[in-house]
Write a structure and sequence with these properties.
Layout lengths: L10 H29 L10 H6 L1 H31 L3 H22 L6 H4 L4 H24 L1
Helix pairs in contact: 1-3, 1-4, 3-4, 3-6, 4-6
Length: 151
């Protein structure tokens, strides 16, 4: 017995958007690794202690890079679920929103690793939060559309 899954036209945009998040996470991991080496923070320590960060600019920058990466990881379940749900009816929008969110995470990270955490949102990183809300609203609307059409 074979099973066929029919994807809506434009689903390639969804795949591209989701894959872009994997590339961003990989890039962020490299940024964190670079800052870990420069700061001398050893594994398995996740962050530099406050005293370490206060005493060393490199340790503080490591914390900034690590926090940007961790924040992206924290957002991933919401991004994946809302992107996939939205894609059932609106794949082009879902793909563009997901890919744009991934780009916003690059801007967020570049701002954060300046050493001034406020810059994580002043250099374009805040745009990602609007995209999260857009995906949340569109996935909710899509769920409503699907429920209404099955009634």
């Amino acid at each position: 017995m074979s099973l066929s899954i029919v994807l809506p036209p434009g689903f390639g945009y969804v795949a591209a958007g989701l894959v872009s998040t994997a590339w961003v996470l990989g890039w962020q991991a490299l940024v964190v690794s670079s800052h870990r080496s420069k700061s001398g923070i050893k594994y398995p320590q996740l962050y530099a202690e406050k005293a370490e960060a206060d005493a060393s600019k490199e340790a503080f920058l490591y914390n900034c890079a690590q926090r940007a990466h961790q924040n992206t990881i924290e957002h991933m379940p919401l991004i994946i679920v809302t992107t996939l749900a939205t894609s059932m009816k609106h794949p082009v929008f879902a793909g563009y929103a997901c890919g744009s969110w991934a780009l916003s995470r690059v801007l967020y990270t570049l701002g954060y690793i300046t050493g001034d955490p406020v810059k994580r949102n002043t250099r374009g990183g805040i745009l990602g939060e609007f995209l999260v809300v857009g995906l949340l609203l569109s996935s909710t609307y899509t769920a409503f559309e699907l429920l209404r059409s099955s009634a």
